[in-house]
Amino acid sequence: MTPARSARGRGAGQAAPAAGGPVLRIDGLVVELPGPRGPKVRVVDGVSFDVPRATTVGLIGESGSGKTMTARAVLGLAPEGATLAGRLLWHGEDLLTAGPARLRAVRGREIAMIFQDPLAALNPTQRIGRQVGEVPRRDRLPRAEVDRRVAELLDRAGVPEPRRRMRAYPHELSGGLRQRAMIAMALAGNPALLLADEPTTALDVTVQSRILSLLAGIQAADGLAMLLISHDLRVVSHVAEQVVVMYAGRSCERGPARDVLRRPAHPYTAALVRGVPAVRTRSALADPLPGAPATPANRPAGCAFHPRCPLARDRCRGEAPAVRETAPGRWSACHFAEEVLGL
Ligand code: SF4
């Protein structure tokens, strides 16, 4: 990737944030990818939010909204040819200006990621024990100590008979056990932040709920911060304390999960909430959500959501709404957020 310095960036030597501040601050993040036939496509467009310590932040939105690209940018895993701008402040240090060696040190150690598809993320030719033991081996521990640590990590991630499972290849495990092995790998470096990208999407409902409980238990016990990426509002509503809603590469609403999901301040959030019967809302907006999601490559002028929005009017078609604070700790990118809140 090509990190482009933001005009606002302070550089790697910047001062640490105040004690008690967020572990991660994403500030005006922009990610542009080479277009298939010409100009770059802005797939993440000025996204800002904090991940406080010991807190789970749910990042939600439909497929293609920029959620995964945001998380990958944090880890320096944006695709080849990508251009990035803004700031990614990790304990105050801007990862966007950090060199490859520093990013490698952060990745897996300080920030770990759990991917959506463990079968694709795990190496099919290596036994589970070898893959989970990658970080402990970097510490040059004796073999027996590495094995003990791997068994402990697998046990913590809820893998039964961990000593036996260490010798298995990924294809010999069920989907749920593979995801648990990924969680064990992620915990190996004692990270302070876990990025979990659709960690339960490929699993059946019962296994989903067990994995979510496991993640919530680890998060609470270790005081981890977690960024949980999901298109599934039920998943996010179960575990997240804060929520960020993305649409067409932009953040359209953010705030405390309970408040946002009970009383959305953006029509898109209201539509997502209405689509999930288990998540209650006071919104009286008509359902369902018409049309297909806008994509960053085909973002409508003005408010990107206007072709699907039941409240759209002339101003929405001509003027992109700024993200603004509509109540303490609540942010919405809707010209008529107060009206939505009152519905
Ligand atoms: Fe709907 Fe207009 Fe608000 Fe966009 S700005 S969400 S189109 S009311």
Overview of this protein structure:
Helix 6 crosses helix 8. The radius of gyration is 21 Å and the shape is globular. A hairpin with a 2-residue loop joins strand 2 and strand 3. It is 32% helix and 23% strand. The protein is α/β, with parallel strands linked by helices and 343 residues long. The strands form two sheets. The chain has an eight-stranded mixed beta sheet with strand order 7-8-9-4-10-11-13-12, sandwiched between helices. The chain has a single domain, classed as 3-Layer(aba) Sandwich (Rossmann fold), CATH 3.40.50. Iron/sulfur cluster binds next to loops. The site of iron/sulfur cluster (SF4) has 13 residues, from loops.
Gist?
With 343 residues, the protein is of the alpha/beta class.
Element layout with pairings:
Elements: E1 2-3, E2 24-35, E3 38-51, E4 56-60, H1 67-74, E5 83-90, E6 93-94, H2 100-106, E7 111-114, H3 118-121, H4 128-132, H5 134-138, H6 143-156, H7 162-165, H8 175-187, E8 193-197, H9 205-222, E9 225-230, H10 233-239, E10 242-247, E11 250-256, H11 257-262, H12 267-274, H13 314-318, E12 324-327, E13 330-332, H14 337-342
Parallel strand pairs: 1-5, 4-9, 4-10, 7-8, 8-9
Antiparallel strand pairs: 2-3, 2-5, 5-6, 10-11, 11-13, 12-13
Iron/sulfur cluster binds at residues 266-267, 303, 305-306, 309, 311-312, 316, 321, 334-336.
